[in-house]
Amino acid sequence: MLNTLEREGYQTAIISSNSKEVIKQVLRRHRIRTISQILSSSAIFGKDQLIRKFLKEHRLKPSEVVYVGDEQRDIVACKSAGIKVIWVSWGYDAKELIQSQNPDFLVDSPGEILDIVFEQLK
């Protein structure tokens, strides 16, 4: 999925409460080289601020970005920052918890992410 996005001209970044070093280790372990930037904050509920910083630094409109997350707080942060969020079912929080948060999209496979990105960010 990440390779397809890169081939199609999309850039991917990671915005996380995990440490940059842990994220880099995981990327190296899985030989993922398509991530253009990693933004990290130890503040568990500070993702909306990181998202706003990312948008400002890259001069992006909220409509030009879609966030892929696996936690309830990802949905809350995206709504606060005004960007669309794709929630993935194979992540941290249970689908039953997430449905009441009304993410823009719920997906069960990486292929569904591609479909949404290609439809939403033409």
From TrEMBL:
<dbReference type="InterPro" id="IPR041492">
    <property type="entry name" value="HAD_2"/>
</dbReference>
<keyword id="KW-0460">Magnesium</keyword>
<dbReference type="GO" id="GO:0006281">
    <property type="term" value="P:DNA repair"/>
</dbReference>
<dbReference type="InterPro" id="IPR006439">
    <property type="entry name" value="HAD-SF_hydro_IA"/>
</dbReference>
<dbReference type="GO" id="GO:0005829">
    <property type="term" value="C:cytosol"/>
</dbReference>
<protein>
    <submittedName>
        <fullName>Hydrolase</fullName>
    </submittedName>
</protein>
<dbReference type="InterPro" id="IPR036412">
    <property type="entry name" value="HAD-like_sf"/>
</dbReference>
<dbReference type="InterPro" id="IPR023214">
    <property type="entry name" value="HAD_sf"/>
</dbReference>
<keyword id="KW-0378">Hydrolase</keyword>
<dbReference type="InterPro" id="IPR050155">
    <property type="entry name" value="HAD-like_hydrolase_sf"/>
</dbReference>
<dbReference type="Pfam" id="PF13419">
    <property type="entry name" value="HAD_2"/>
</dbReference>
<dbReference type="GO" id="GO:0008967">
    <property type="term" value="F:phosphoglycolate phosphatase activity"/>
</dbReference>
